[in-house]
Design goal:
Layout (H helix, E strand, L loop, with lengths): L3 H14 L6 E2 L2 E2 H19 L10 H9 L3 E5 L3 H6 L6 E2 L2 H6 L3 H7 L5 E5 L4 H12 L3 E4 L4 H6 L8
Parallel strand pairs: 3-4, 3-5, 5-6
Antiparallel strand pairs: 1-2
Amino acid sequence: MNFAGVLDACGIAMCLARTPWNQRIGSSCVGWNVVFLLALVMGSQAALSAPIEHTRDGLDVVKHNISDKKAVLVDVREKDEWSEGHLKGAVLVPLSVLEGGKSRGKIAEALPKDKIIYCHCKSGRRALKAARVLQEYGYDVRPLAAGYKDLLKAGFTPDQE
């Protein structure tokens, strides 16, 4: 995460805190500056902790975006689950790899930043966790609520490797 803005605001607030509360800086009271900075910091923290939700893109839209090469389907299940069956054209990026943080370069090689990333798992929970990590890496990520079996039922093609 990029906390530079929050840290800058905290640094300014600390400098202002050294000024007596009844002293004016320019034409504004220090107290109002501190109130403004606290609101800024609180707003920044709220934005950083905003919950990620499943995409509202319908599965037909997802299929269309993938077939038009506007999006990539990422399977965030583990390797053993992938081996039991996966979707045609999907890219395997296990959640454990994403959360490990050591493969950022490999992920950048595997996933284009100029496309939508739809991630899926078995039931949708890991897709949300993976989406948070991929979002921090700068991707337009849209986690699917539908799991692997749901996607098969919706007409996604299994890979017959």
